[in-house]
Design brief:
Elements: H1 11-18, E1 24-32, E2 37-42, E3 47-53, E4 62-67, E5 72-92
Antiparallel strand pairs: 1-5, 2-5, 3-4, 3-5
Amino acid sequence: MATSNLHRYTAQEALNIITAGGGYDYVTGATVNSHVYVAITALSVDAVVSATSSDTDIWDTLSDVTIKAGQTIYGQWTSVTVASSDFAIVHRRSS
């Protein structure tokens, strides 16, 4: 039988991710890397982001990915960079 290394979130962990239980950082043309980040939301313009995965077996590292205005992507990253003149909310994992 095949096994998976995917993490199964508890109900509380899933709720924390959905509600940004760890808070968020407003980022424009900068890098944030003092937390583990679980979601990136582009604000009024499309945002080009790069993000370093916290575990590449589960989450991909992103390089110059465009997130459309109003959209959110989910993952788990230790560093997120938002391109110059782009705006995003980067949600932290609850500790």
